[in-house]
Amino acid sequence: MNRNVILTCAITGAGDTTAKSPHVPVTPKQIADSCIEAARAGASVAHIHVRDPQTGGISHSVEHFREVMERVREADTDIVMNITAGGGGDWIPDAEDPTRGGPGTDIQTPAERHAPVAELLPELCTLDCGSLNFGDMVYVNPADWLREHARLVQAAGVKPELECFDLGHVWFARQLQQEGLLDGDPLYQLCLGIPWGAEADTETMLAMRNKLPETANWAAFGIGRQQMPMVAQAVLLGGHARVGLEDNLYLKKGVLATNGQLVEKAATLIDNLGARVMTPAETRAHLKLRDPRTGKIVEKVAGGDA
């Protein structure tokens, strides 16, 4: 069991959820405000996507990311920032010509996906570790793209969160480490319950955890109604946890949640298991992240050990 838990809040995602809940943040200000809400509720990390303020749909705008980052950093509440670098991989074959992308296809090169990371240098960024059938579309992330993207993240000095949606993704992430494309102890995120990747259940989480390197830090999440059960299971198996409106819209059946409410519920669950949520400062020291104020790697919490 893990007694000191890093709790991530995935603030908004890129899915078609804005029409399903008024609490899903859309504009950079709303996303930043929701990061601050999550921090005040006890989250260690905020994981962010950005959206088109007019449509609520997918956006890759560096300026939207910049506004979110600046608003959060200017607030009086601390939180580790983790920005997505996994956008631009959506492939939906055209109905008339399946060799071409149809409506909804959104493909970016590794360099384009990396642009917000290179420009803004967050403490963490995601690195999705393979392709998969993602619902009714295909998420495209070939091995050579992954290697190129890993080199870009490594050169930027940002720690990647290795997002693994299936067991083969864990295998390839280990390969990246063997090839020298990951620095320090790796950080894995086991992403469970997305059709048609790894299922959100104990057996699947345990199988993926058992394939991780001995030095790995890891977290897991489940989507929808499996969000809180997977929080508990991850902690019991020695990992960290993630909640948030990217993955689940409900506090309980029929009751729409805010990000702050989901963080509070998860933090209470973690506390009831006999563990505690780590502060952002403790998280930086534990993962040896770059301090956003000084640019230096944090080795210990000021005034004590991590």
Gist?
This protein is α/β, with parallel strands linked by helices and 306 residues long. The chain has nine helices and 18 strands. The longest helix has 14 residues, at 28-41.
Structure characterization notes:
With 306 residues, this protein is α/β, with parallel strands linked by helices. The protein has one domain: Aldolase class I (TIM Barrel, Alpha-Beta Barrel), CATH 3.20.20.70. It contains nine helices and 18 strands. The chain has helices at residues 28-41, 62-74, 110-120, 143-156, 167-178, 202-209, 227-236, 259-272, 280-287, and strands at residues 4-5, 7-10, 45-48, 50-51, 58-59, 80-83, 89-91, 106-107, 124-128, 132-134, 137-139, 159-164, 187-192, 217-222, 240-243, 250-252, 255-256, 276-277. Helix 1 packs parallel to helix 8 (259-272) and helix 2 (62-74) runs parallel beside helix 3 (110-120). It starts with a strand and ends in a 19-residue tail after the last helix.
CATH superfamily: Aldolase class I
Contiguous runs where pLDDT drops below 50 for at least 5 residues = none
CATH class: Alpha Beta
Count of separate DSSP helical elements? 9
Structural class: alpha/beta
CATH topology: TIM Barrel
* Strand coverage percent: 15-25%
| Alpha carbon gyration radius | 18 Å
Number of strands: 18
